[in-house]
Amino acid sequence: EVQLVESGGGLVQPGGSLRLSCAASGFTFSSYWMSWVRQAPGKGLEWVANIKQDGSEEHYVDSVKGRFTISRDNAKNSLYLQMNSLRAEDTAVYYCARGRRYCSSTTCPLPYYFDYWGQGTLVTVSS
Amino acid sequence: QSALTQPASVSGSPGQSITISCTGTNSDVGGYNYVSWYQQHPGKAPKLMIYDVSNRPSGVSNRFSGSKSGNTASLTISGLQAEDEADYYCSSYTSSSTLVFGGGTKLTVL
């Protein structure tokens, strides 16, 4: 059974840092792109970042570029999100998700759907 | 990238069919067959219901179906059941190689 379990959320002051973790099990972690998706309280979903299977490629939504870093440790079956210079608008539940995509003979997009999600971890940025 | 446009709410009675629309642009929904739909119950993680416009993952009821015409994608739920009451989100790949979600639709089963 695929399981994704996030941890590391909490209350942090504006300008502070936080590191989220996601422990994966039930599948070959090193074979999949992984992603972070967030949801502000009472709001919709927002894709945050993607990382390739071997960690050689990362992509971010514009609003977190330069502040957040996605990484992974395939030996530990773990995904991470280092969040620096946090702002009030970063307050959200952060979900770890397995990214999927369909590649044709001519096109191979970045992952564009998520087939498994964790339960989420709440990050609150407030003074 | 602006969020895709979904109706804030839809409702239907048990046994009926409902359709949720998701409108984007030529740069996302209209440009790719990379539209997905997610169901989210209160306090729970999203669940993938449809991918690649109309494909259902294993285990998802065939009461759920997806389609697309131009810049608008649609999710149809037939034979509504009480357990279908949830929030539904669409998403699409974009020409910027990013992913955009819709604002979400609250489905109420009357």
Descriptive notes:
The complex is a heterodimer of chains A (127) and B (110). Chain A has 127 residues and is mainly β. Helices cover 0% and strands 50% of the residues of chain A. Chain A contains no helices and eleven strands. Chain A has strands at residues 3-7, 10-12, 18-25, 33-39, 45-51, 58-60, 68-73, 78-83, 92-100, 113-117, 121-125. In chain A, the strands form two sheets. In chain A, strands 2, 4, 5, 6, 9, 10 and 11 form a seven-stranded mixed beta sheet that branches. In chain A, strand 5 and strand 6 form a beta hairpin. Chain B is mainly β and 110 residues long. Chain B is 0% helix and 44% strand. Chain B contains no helices and nine strands. Chain B has strands at 9-12, 18-23, 35-40, 47-50, 64-69, 72-77, 86-93, 99-101, 105-109. In chain B, the strands form two sheets. In chain B, strands 1, 3, 4, 7, 8 and 9 form a six-stranded mixed beta sheet that branches. In chain B, strands 2-6-5 form a three-stranded antiparallel beta sheet, with no helix packed on it. The radius of gyration of chain B is 13 Å and the shape is globular. The N and C termini of chain B lie far apart (35 Å). The relative contact order of chain B is 0.34. The model of chain B has no long low-confidence stretch (mean pLDDT 96). At the A-B interface, strand 5 and strand 10 of A face strand 7 and strand 8 of B.
* Structural class by sheet pairing and helices of chain B: mainly beta
Largest sheet of chain A: 7 strands, mixed
Helix-strand string of chain A: EEEEEEEEEEE
Instruction: Bin the strand percentage of chain A.
Output: over 45%
Poorly predicted residue ranges of chain B: none
Q: What's the SSE pattern of chain B?
A: EEEEEEEEE
Summarize the largest interface: chains and residue counts.
Answer: A-B, 22 and 25 residues
Give a short overview.
The complex is a heterodimer of chains A (127) and B (110). Chain A has 127 residues and is mostly beta strands. Chain A has no helices and 11 strands.
